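Schema walk-through. Below, the input block comes first and the output block second. Nothing else is stored per chain. Lengths vary across the set, and this one has 450 residues.
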Amino acid sequence: MPITENIISNNISSNIIQNYKKKVVSAEDAVKVIKSGNNIIVQPGCAVPLKLINAMVDRKDELSDINIYHILVVGDLPYMKPGMEKHFKHKAFFMGKNTRNAVNEGRAEFIPIFLSEVTLLFKKGRIKSDVALIHVSLPDEHGFCSYGVDVGNIKTPAEMSKTVIAQVNSQMPRSLGDSFIHINKIDYIVENDEPIIELPQVDPNSSSEKLKIYDMIGENIASLIEDGSTLQMGIGAIPDSMMKYLMKKNDLGIHSEMFSDGLVDLVEMGIVNGEKKSLHTGKIIAGFVLGTKKTYDFIDNNPIVEFHRQEYVNDPFVIAKNNKMVAVNSALEIDLTGQVCADSIGTKLFSGIGGQVDFVRGAAHSEGGKPIIALPSTTKNDTISRIVPMLKPGAGVVTSRGDVHYVVTEYGIAYLFGKSIRERTKALIEIAHPKYRDELASFVKNNYHF
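--- output ---
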């Protein structure tokens, strides 16, 4: 059934239907509003509006000096191809593998910023958005479309944009919470009926040995989680591995910048119910999801899930209102004093600050909270230790040593908060890979004077 007919069949008033119809155009016509020199904000994650992006890139020969802003986007980005920088300049708040090379080759730029403050750049007018490219659900009977799988990173910037172009997709789930935009606020509508991009959580290239390590880390993390805790978890093998060790926990809650497929089973089993949460009792609070249709079906019209703007979800003062807040974040390397690098490998930019510091600080100030940094002890088949005497030259310190509480590897748990440098080095060496412990201890002996 064509999308417009689908809408008509949903008992929507004739005024809303007529208003909707007036705004429907082709993608090619919609993006004609984009002019050289414009700033464009793109809905990120799995909600990336590829139909609009492709139409914009098709106009490349007419355009120059276009600035494109977003955090992590899933999928192929045509404006990232070599040569496109003459027309489009991406400004990344967070990098994935589809943007990393462009940034490190100088074809795109990286903006280091806490995730809680990305949307505030637009709200406060530090970045002025000319056009927002968004991807939303069909309107309901009142004319409201849902931002679907990514609400937190786009709602505020879209409201601040001069022009809003919406890719309206009959397959976009209708997520609830602070997740809606009325068709009166949309300037152009481009209809779409395609599956939402998926991001499976299990890396098919992971070896059995690597998965075993993640499993051990997940078990160590789970040992720190008490019944009634509220959790934040990121994306990847470590949080996924942690999930299986939560099966015997009770009354867990979720307040997280995002979640993925692993959470769905815990909710359906009643392990995550939010009944002990001190903030938004009974609700899962998030800004976006990265997952597969399993997660998209779960959030569709599901009243247990509330999506909010990232400046709210990631606000450390809001996070701290959750009692027993457990924040789980990863790192690329950590030095023997506790400094955490999570966004670069030396001078080579890798990802971004994201929400790590937001949640580390929020959990630290939560009653009974536990901020956790989790990482495998080595990389490159045990040839490089991730616990190091000093961070690589040029490496970024995302989380300071003053902020770090728990550090977890497959070899155990180190608690650093309130500990001296001598105590920290000892605790971290104990959870380093055995192959590197003597080397790390020798460095401490020769370089520190306790």
